[in-house]
Design goal:
This protein is of the alpha/beta class. It is about 20% helix and about 25% strand. It has a single domain, classed as TIM Barrel (Alpha-Beta Barrel), CATH 3.20.20. Strand 8, helix 4 and strand 9 form a beta-alpha-beta unit.
Length: about 210
């Protein structure tokens, strides 16, 4: 199958467990919880998304005809050196497009594959690092993985239920909206009250990275 990619770029992972790690980001176009268009935000399941995933016009974006073509673009973005190759598949919702062909091609290029998903679709079994960021009001089917990253506050989120899911790491991340410091305080309060959770900050925004 072909892949619609909004943008593809080399950066440092800005948030979550792997914050600070060199990575190629592949941002897929499209999501199943919001169209990405402001006119639809108020009626969407996910109304707080801060990412542009509409179209294929971002840096490095475009239509890639198969897994080999997209893996070649990821490899070119990484540059020289074969050690510690790391790619993050994100979106939008990457599991609308990720398939065997892409996973096999990225592994053949010696990349460790991470995914950032809303969890409403089962993650491909070949993914090496699974990060799920659930959205209140959605039905999460991927309830196991490496990293649970919950944007906070989210009214309607059942923290007790989420803590029963099978994840190795639980991270709480302040929502990036007009409430600013209030969200930071809410996330800090949750981490202080529930020691299983660790605070995650969007350091790429603080540092001016993508």
């Amino acid at each position: 199958m072909s892949y619609a990619v909004k943008e593809l770029f080399l950066t440092l992972q800005g948030e979550g467990f792997h914050a600070g790690r060199r990575a190629v980001f592949v941002r897929f176009a499209g999501c199943n919880l919001w169209s990405g268009r402001e006119v639809d935000r108020a009626s969407a399941i996910c109304r707080f998304c801060d990412t542009d995933f509409v179209g294929m016009d971002g840096d490095g974006g475009g239509r890639f005809e198969d897994g080999a073509a997209l893996a070649a673009a990821v490899e070119a973005a990484w540059g020289t050196g074969e050690s510690e190759r790391f790619v993050v598949l994100t979106g939008g919702e990457p599991m609308l497009q990720v398939d065997d062909g892409l996973v096999d091609a990225l592994h053949a290029a010696r990349f460790t594959i991470a995914i950032e998903s809303n969890g409403t679709l089962a993650v491909h079994p070949g993914i090496d690092w699974i990060c799920i960021s659930p959205k209140a009001g959605s039905t999460v089917v991927q309830r196991r993985g490496d990293e649970m990253k919950l944007v906070w506050p989210q009214p309607g989120s059942d923290i007790d239920a989420i803590e029963d899911w099978d994840f190795r790491h639980f991270l709480i991340q302040p929502m990036d909206d007009a409430r600013g410091r209030e969200n930071w305080d809410a996330a800090i309060a949750l981490a202080m009250a529930r020691p299983r959770w660790r605070l995650s900050l969007q350091t790429h925004k603080l540092l001016g990275l993508r």
